[in-house]
Amino acid sequence: MPKPIKAIEGKAAPLKAENVDTDQIIPAQFLKLLSRRGLGKYAFYRWRYDEKGNPRPGFILNDSRFSGAVILIAGRNFGIGSSRENAVWALTDLGIKCVIAPSFGDIFYNNAAKNMLLCIRLPEKTVKILQEKAESGDLTLRIDLESQKITGGGLEISFDVEPHIRERFLKGLDDISLTLQYGNLIERYEKNMPEYLKPKPRKFIYE
Predict the structure, then answer these.
(1) pTM for the complete prediction?
(2) One CATH from 3.40.50.300, 2.60.120.10, 3.10.450.330, 3.20.19.10 for 7-196
(3) Euclidean distance between CA atoms 43 and 20, whole angstroms
(4) 130 near 13, Cβ under 8 Å?
(5) How does pLDDT run across 75-128, given as a tens digit for each residue?
């Protein structure tokens, strides 16, 4: 069960790219990996490394000024493309806790919420202001989910998150724990089910 998250605070890194799809976030050749752990080293792999596996100096997350960044400020349509949940896993394993962008791919946005990666939509003009401030490498932001405000760099910005997503973070709920909240109702329903719908006892024979 995830831990409750009431606020996210840390360094912000600007990713000035639009229409970043899930294949760019985690290339297809790494989808065969079975564990979520360790996927962070493959995040943005083609952008971070050249053909010989050497870090590309021009990529923002290879810049030492943004080491340890937990907030990514991206362009519009972040996370479009295929439905691979691995893209979210790669970002969280990389240490990213929040992505701010004008818009997101719908499937990526939903996958992110389920995996405690906060996605915040802000007007494009506001996102560009944040990107410009983050370019210095010393922009620290505090994202408060209770007040739904972003502060830092002399700014205070209000944002909206869907109530069910906000509740997930504030209470630390995944899909299983959300379902278990209705345990009494589920139990009552099962007791009132017609006999022919109730599961039959099974006998397992081990040889």
Answers:
(1) 0.88
(2) 3.20.19.10
(3) 12
(4) no
(5) 999 999 998 999 999 999 999 999 999 999 999 999 999 999 999 999 999 999
List the beta bridge partners of residue 149: 144, 158
| Residue 51: DSSP 8-state | T
Give residue-wise pLDDT tens across range 126-142: 999 999 999 999 999 99
Contact 124, 96 (CB under 8 A): no
pLDDT at 73 over 70: yes
Count of other CB atoms within 10 angstroms of residue 65: 13
> Taking a C-beta distance cutoff of 8 angstroms, is the pair 131, 141 a contact?
no
* Largest interatomic CA distance in the chain: 70
Q: How many CA atoms lie within 13 A of 14 on its CB side?
A: 16
